[in-house]
Amino acid sequence: MDLTKVTEFVKKQLQDEKTGHDFYHGQRVAHLASKMYLQDNPDAHTDSRVVAIIQAAGYLHDTIDEKICANPDQVLADIKELLPQVGFTSLETKDILFTMQHMSFSANIEHHYQLPVSGEYVQDADRIESLGAIGIARAFTYGGAHGNVIYDPKIKPQKLVSHDQYREHTETTINHFYEKLFHLADLMNTASGKKEAQKRTEFMRNYVTEFMAEWNV
After folding, report:
1. What is the 3-state secondary structure (H, E, C) of 130-180?
2. Interval 26-55: pLDDT, tens
3. Whole-prediction pTM value?
């Protein structure tokens, strides 16, 4: 399936994005999610429809993110019109839209949504993007864009219990590692996702350990 219309739509929607949720993030999520799906399901290489669903959701997922989208409802309506034009059936379109609307970390703090299999791979890939070297870069980019300090020992990490608290509480970028990022590996859905998340989390923990050692010199 040709996803050119999808990628062009994402490029237009995220052309001014500078917090780590840009087109290239969506592209990496799409590629990683489909790669992991094929790793876990080696007999599915001919199932191009599932791969297309995964890639479309991966590319599109942040176009309706409340953090960066001024009018998610309008963008969602545009996507509902776009997907059938690309060639997705009504059921495939429903799966893609459900994944996009229910995959975020904040949406699952108070209630865990069961995603379709395709959505589980997209969710894992998106969370893996918050880990490792890429994850560190994105964390500091996002924190800087929102005026968060790098670290303040007087501001302690909090246990996240609700969507509103997650969005509104005072945080530092280093606290974000303790509050969210170090927990993501335990939330993975898929075999390949769990393996990659553990590797990247170890890298990230080593980084934060070094950061704290340098801070406390």
Report:
1. CCHHHHHHHHHHHHHHCCCCCCCCCCCCCCCCCHHHHHHCCCCHHHHHHHC
2. 999 999 999 999 999 988 666 789 999 999
3. 0.95
